[in-house]
Structure formats: C-alpha cells, structure tokens
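Q: Start with the shorter request: fold the first protein.
A: Done. Sequence, then structure:
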Amino acid sequence: MIMLAFAPISGMAGAALLYWLELARRLFVKLALPLPLPLILGGLIVGALSLWRPEVWGNGDSGIRQQIDGLWSWQIVALVLALKLLAVAATTGSGAPGGVFTPTLFVGAAFGALLSAALAALGYTGAAEPVYAVLGMATVLAGTTHAPVMAALMVAEMTGQYSLLTVFLPACVVATLVSQRLHPQSIYGLSAPTEEPK
C-alpha cells in the first residue's frame, strides 16, 4: 500500500521537473545571448558542478546503478540529485544536444531512494531501498512522459524487475494522472530552447 501511495508524490515530482525545465528555458531565453554563448554558459555550469561532484557528469546511468545497488547514503543521494537538477537545467535551457530521458530516470531513482530512507527513519522496513529506487524511476518517468505503460515496461526491462509490474503499472497510471492535472503537457511537448514557453 505504501508503494502505491508513493505514486501521487511521484506524479507531483514529475510535474515539478517539467516546470523546472520550463523555468530553465525561460531564463536562457531572457538572457538573449547570441549563439554559441548559451551553449558555452551551459557547458561551464555543468563542468563546474562536475568538478565538485563527478557523479553529476554524464547522463546519470552509473548513478542510477549505484542507487539501485544501495551504494550511496541518503545525504549523497540528496546532494547529487540537487546538483543533477542544476546540470540538467543548464543543459536543457542552453539548448545543448542531449536528452532528458536518462536524467529523468536518475531523478526518479534518487526520489525513490530518499523516500526509502525517510520511511526507514520512521521505522518502516516493508521494502528495501532498491525497490523504491526502481519504483521511483518508473513513476517519475511516467509523470514526465505521461506514458504510464511505456514507463512501467521500460523500467521493468531495464532492471529485470518484471515481478513488480503489478505494482509498477497502477502506480505509473496514478503518477501520470496526477502529473497531467498539474502540468498538462508532457516532456515531449515542452517548447524548444529558442522559444518562450507558453
């Protein structure tokens, strides 16, 4: 039940991520910098963050694996999540080539890992951290793409957690419905970096 109750929170997180990316694009548009200055600025921001915490570099695939394997403390997860959100905003806002699909999975895994840590602090031990990290990947992805079936199946395929599909599917549907109420457009409907978001 707690795992399913996690879904609406993931939906809100997915919508918040969409608004965060829109804000980043607005800020870069308002700077009105000629090309290639926005790309240079975005690269400098990501580079500076990566020098501080190398885990920020790249699309987040290695960070996802470390979270699923439970190798990071919740403090490290929270720090890298905050820096990763800044890096993704700098990349997306500047119009640099690259997607947000894997970074979204990273955000979801971190979100799930932090929820697991919070539940453990409250004395709940009903599910291991890796389960929540994987569930976070699926539900936050559903919340940003508004494609619950795709999100559930893709994360199950990526992690081999087919036995959790009966939890993934309803949780992803709930996360999608909540996210759609808060942010009707999916991540695929966001404005191009050179356009003022609506």
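Q: Next, the second protein, separately.
A: Sequence, then structure:
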Amino acid sequence: MEQEHSSKFLVPGAIVVAGLLVAGAIYAGGGTAPSYNTGQVSRAVELPSITSKDHILGSASADVVIVEYSDTECPFCKAFHNTLKQVMSTYGGKVAWVYRHFPIAQLHSKAPNEAEATE
C-alpha cells in the first residue's frame, strides 16, 4: 500500500524537479533575451562580376540575377536546386541564374574533384 502511495507522487514530483532545473538554468544564464539582427550590415561584400566564364541560365542583363554558390555533394544545395528550377520556370526571361562552384572539402571530400570535372 505504501509503494502505491509513493508511486502516485513520482511523476508529479519528477515534473516539479524538472521545472526547477529549467528555472535554475534560465536564472544561471542571466535570463537575458537573445540578441536579434538589427538589419544593419557591418560591411559590404564584393562579389566577382559576372563574366562569360560563369554558368548562366537566362540573360545576364535580366532585372534579377541570382548567383548561386553551391557544393555538388551538399544535400541542402541539391534541394535548393529544385527551388531555383521552379523560379526559372515561373519567371523565365526576367531572372538570370548564375551558378558558381563552392566545394566544401572539409564536409564533402569528392566535391572539389566533381566541381573540376563539371567545368
């Protein structure tokens, strides 16, 4: 009977202890809100100009030019590729898509060779 009585308070007690641990962690962390991006750019980034050596789909003089830096082995880059194909099919002549290799050898050992092979 006593074991039934103590197990009755086990789950609520664990919840209270977990809540105290979370509250303690928040208090120990200072409880400050995370800093958010203010929208101000600390420095401008200069991209290389588009040249005839770039891989361009669409007109380089289009109103909107999307420059994609991509790693051939990156799963996120592959997913984004489908998004860009959709943008091109929707906006066709108004958008240019410039592809530039950006192999990340530390993550994808084959990427540098694949980038070179696709040139």
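Q: Describe the second briefly.
A: The chain has two domains: 1-33, 55-117. Residues 69 and 100 are 5 Å apart (CA to CA).
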